[in-house]
## 1
Amino acid sequence: MPFLAYIDPGSGSMLLQVLLAGALAVPFFFRRVIGDAWHRIRGGRGTTRPDDGAEDATSDR
Amino acid sequence: MAPRTPPAIADPPTVDPGSFRDPAGLVFRRDGTLYRQVHQAGAADWDVYRSSGLHDRLVADRLVVDHVEESLDLAASPGAVAVIRPRLVEMVSYPYEWSFSQLKEAALLTLDLQARALDVGMRLKDASAYNIQFDAGRPILIDTLSFEAAPPTEPWPAYRQFCEHFLAPLALMAHRDVRCGLMLREFIDGIPLDLAARLMPGRTRLNPGLLAHLHLHASAQRRAANEAPPAHDTPKQPRRVSAIGQRALLDSIRRTISGLRWRPRSHWAGYATTTSYSETATASKGSLVRGMLDAVGGATAWDLGANTGVYSALAADAGYKVVAWDQDAASVEAHWLQVRGDGRPSILPLVLDLANPSPAIGWALEERGSFLGRGEPDVVLALALVHHLAIGNNVPLAAIARLFARMARYAIVEFVPKDDPMTRRLLAARRDIFDSYTLDGFRADVAATHRIVREDRVDDSPRTLFLLERR
């Protein structure tokens, strides 16, 4: 890696983010936005994320 | 906090040696008080952070430390736009001293803060694990200058840092060996992703989150490093993500972190239930330790070799704030989960090998303090510890006493003689070279550094408890 010390080491990370954000946006949209709307229609509480719960660092334990 | 009268400025400020990277501000001390200064370069972001209500909401939810705004006259350097006095956390600890769940909670907090910042058109400009501390039993952000205003279509500049400070060590701890967390002591900027990817088991490529954020991330970095540098006058190509893509990425990282689990298996975590103590001896030791803690009448205690924290709890019940150190990651993990479950915010379990404690690290060895430089408790507890240091590590008793004397005025020490089953076990496979390891030898060896305030034999046990006071 001849240029390792002289380049922005984050450039690969930034490019990967762009690719991942593009790939993840559609499934995320369906899971979160459509899923929440479906929950609301069925009388659920909307933004509840079933996978978070116990792992949520911001919940007041 | 009580209102302060305008302070008389006596001493020149001393800039915190770990505070030099951020162009938006710095941390300094003046007359022993810790302040944070916002430079002109950070003024606009500081305004948005406060005017958006983000700071107030994060403080109300105890996710960021609160502060008091102070006079600009206190600034450490010219051009300050704000000076704040942050509320101090009780004990500064570092990621290489955290158990798996502590590091994971700090990671999830960082992601939650990023999500909350995105809600108001801001973001975390860095994701350093050193920006998080444990305060009253939960993680909290101490760097109030971490937020900057940014369009939601810009990639997160702290993504790489987050993966190196949190994802890589957590993934290695969960999938390779929990002791990989100690690598953070060597790599102050987080574990390099190429190294983490090489150390991870191959099967982790089947985990979509680890494949994307760790393995592909390492490849992307390697690829970028091998590219020829751009010509000097080439304009930077701005990279863009969609706002929902930004959220999707954050959601993916969060799921990846949440999915990392570690189930401890350790000899030590079950130690408290497998000791040689009878019920009588346990009750006797408990009441003797409590009596000594009450005699000291202090406010802070460090429990060395705390295991899963039986005597840390006893000290907490006696009104002490306790830092419970143990070298065994499984014991600290069990202790932390228990402290969390019981709601005992006055105890902070941390990982430490007393025979090789956390050194000072970083630039000029000043960025992160050593174990001994992080405060002086009123008393150290060394219960069922000295025989491990003396016979397990060959440390002379006098050297152990000198360490206790450096740490605190008082020490509560349990002497476990050679005829105790646990010491016999330590000696079973080795030659006994410890002629002076006797009760009389102990008394003689501590005499240079300590006065024996109390000495009590534990009922139904060959062990003796000492309350020592530094000379």
## 2
Amino acid sequence: MRSSISNKRDLIKKIYASLFWIIFWYLISNIMNNKLLLPSPIDVFISLVNLLNTKDIYISIANTFIRIITGFFLGSILGIILSIFSYKFIFFKSLMEPLILMIKATPIASIIILALVWISSKNLSVFIAFLMVLPTMYTTILKGLDSTDEKMLEMAKVFKIKGCKLIRYIYMPSIKPYLIAAASLALGLSWKAGVAAEVIGLPSGTIGESLYTAKIYLNTPELFAWTFLIVAISFIFEKLFIFLLNRI
Amino acid sequence: MNIDLININKSFDGEQVINNFNGIIEENKITCIMGESGIGKTTLINMILGLEKPDSGKILGLDQRKISAVFQEDRLCEEFNCIQNLRIVCDRNISDKELTRLLYALELGEVMYKKVSLLSGGMKRRLAIGRALIFDADIIVMDEPFKGLDRELHAKIIELVKKKAKGKILIVVTHNMEEVKSLNANLIVL
């Protein structure tokens, strides 16, 4: 009861804070009075409605979504597998350390440009999303595995708990919070980097290409509308995915 | 087959915890281990459980035998309910009815579908005892299992443990002489 009241309060606070910033944006855009530099929220909303009335937008969203989510899942699966190996074998962990550090430290723009040399622009966002997710998942899941209670592992050893039971009852409870945190972070990263890769690689019929076109034609309201869409899709997918993870 | 503890030595960080210990834990009997705090009772049972190795000496009679345990801390899966905590250590052929019967015997019938994290300390202790009893073991090791149980339950749970441990080796670490008498146990003093 108390938590539902506090959740409602939090929601109201968030709505007021958002309204404040929308009004602030509206006032600044009115003062500047230049759509090219800063369109008003109304201009962006109209642009968004216009976009949603075209067929192409859904094709672009579907193309980008499938690629980024493919990269996300491939990166997650490999990240989890590698973290299990690192947890089990210290030499493997040492082997992985410089590689993960290098991926994390390399600027995303360098990776995108380098990747364009190796692979087609069509698959670039899959690769970039994969590369963003891999170290995040690897590092976080490894932390979760390392935090598994030694005493519970001893209990499992005594009672000869193995296989699926060991994963479900002993490892999952300690990994789950880490998995949720990693998934949330990795999803945000994969959308940001994936769309950036599309803007550079310009594969046809994607959100990245549409963003670039809006920029070329100096259609700033459309640029804002696309940005809003990317944030919304990323947010909805993240919430849905975390909801499903919580049900495991 | 008895468990023979022969010339057991164990030290941690240079401090001798168990010094040349010898003892016999008899087959089909209850054996209580008593001794002051920090004297090495838990270390000794950890060695029987295979969680620690003696620095020197031998433990005979453990090969190919299944062991279950009640640890000093309950070590339950807090996110799962009582039935699930028992199921973890059971074969598939154990029915829900059997688990339910045990939980009622432990006075946990009313809370069997409650998450363990929501149970009281005493309830958790009883569930840990239940888990050790339902596991198909030849040897049951219990580290202060009745600590924290109220008087009424204390006697009832001791009787249940005695009944379920029949035909097995039961090793109980305790500080309470009354428990040794109630269990009608052999005594090893460290």
